[in-house]
Amino acid sequence: MSDDAHAPQRQNASRPQLTSSMRSSSYLSDHQQYRPPRQPEPHHGIDTVLEDTNASKGPSPKTILPFRGIPSEESPPVVIDSGVTHSFSHPNCAPPFGRKTDRLVATLIYKKRASNASISGPRSPVKGGASDSNESLPGNMAPTTDINAFPLEPPTQESDSLDHIYGSYISPLCVTSFLHLMSTFPMPSGADQLHSSHRCLDNQETPRVVELTFSPSPSPEFLSLDDLRKHEMIYRFEQEWNVDVNLQRESVFRRHPRLVVFDMDSTLITQEVIDLLADNIKDPPNLAERVAEITHRAMLGDLEFEASFRERVALLKGLPETIFQDLRPVLDVTEGVRKLITGLKRLGVKTAVLSGGFLPLTSWLAGELGIDYAHANEVVIEDGKLTGEVKGVIVGKERKRDLLIEIAAKEGISLAQTIAVGDGANDLLMLEKAGLGVAWNAKPRVQMEAGARLNGNSLADLLYLFGLTAEEVDELAA
Fold first, then answer.
1. Active-site residue, 265 included
2. In terms of CB atoms within 10 Å, which end of the chain has fewer, N or C?
3. Of 388, 437, 399, 398, the residue nearest 415 (C-alpha)
4. Which of 132, 163, 202, 263 is catalytic?
5. What are phi and psi of 19, to 5 degrees?
6. Is 263 one of the catalytic residues?
7. Are strands 104-110 and 452-454 parallel, antiparallel or unpaired?
8. What is the largest CA-CA distance in the chain?
9. Mean pLDDT of 408-436
């Protein structure tokens, strides 16, 4: 037979065919999605071990091999370097054994109004009063009057405000600029690289309040915390970015104060009470100006407060005692005060008002706001009229400091857990003695000496210095 006769048969034989012997019941096997191991596993799982041990039937139980799932010297673990370092340690964690926490907290608060309005803007309706001072910081000058206490080089030319360029809030560039500024200060000897973290306390998109935590803090051998607060570069940063920079040591006392004391005039209220009294006297016609001028000199520290107060009260001789009741509707409570006092009370913080004004008005205001303590001057009244004299010790700067100490001792509170808020020179000793002294829209000298300064519109901003967020502040005030 020829080769051509066999060609079709060879062609048919070469065609692949699926026979029954080639079929499999396993879909995974057909599609090669599962491949059984070539050799049986040398180690058995716990299910296999239990099954084989408890088996009562079977031709012959399998040999139980030792479990090798736990690394040992015979079976060391396989370590693969992923290039990622995992560690529990972080600069914001608890410090290593034998060391103390060394962190500095900077609370940046954006000032909505103009940079110098907080110092020079009028707050009292009486012209010429202490709170109506047109005084502002001189150009090209840092907030200091004593060059010997100024540790750095002379100030440079004033810079343009950058917040109008990069955003009227605390912008990312503002935070970056501040981080760079803090990195220029010498660190303690042998300290690690400076680490920082920050929180937007009110709004993530356009924050007005940002809290930054630094570790470690600048070397105290180079700059103490008080000197750092007065540093020329800090001052200039505040002017450029229109912010207040408040520096505090991180501690449990910062987050949990127990006593807050306030000045009254130009702090809890926007006016000076003695100026309001003088403004209600029409005879002689120039009395208001005379009283306001004395007040202005006293608040700037050019005149001793006690002597100036007695001099001003003498000018009020003959006023009816009902004048204090008449002034109640006129008092303008500072924005945020009611919210602040409510929040402090819910936190269990004691409050006090220590005023160089008059006790009848101070006590009434304390009752209206829910303040725990009220101390002020008691005027002598005879036949329903003011005699122009004062009874007892004048509540001046020394008395305010002593009252702070007395109230803290009575309540069993450490001075480290106290805060004092004021605006004038007669508040300086009180601000210095407290754990934190806060200058509220104060005169330049007070802003320079105080541990913290707020130059905003709402006194409730004080709660941000505790580390509270806007959400928490609203919750406390609800």
1. yes
2. N
3. 437
4. 263
5. -95, 170
6. yes
7. unpaired
8. 154
9. 96
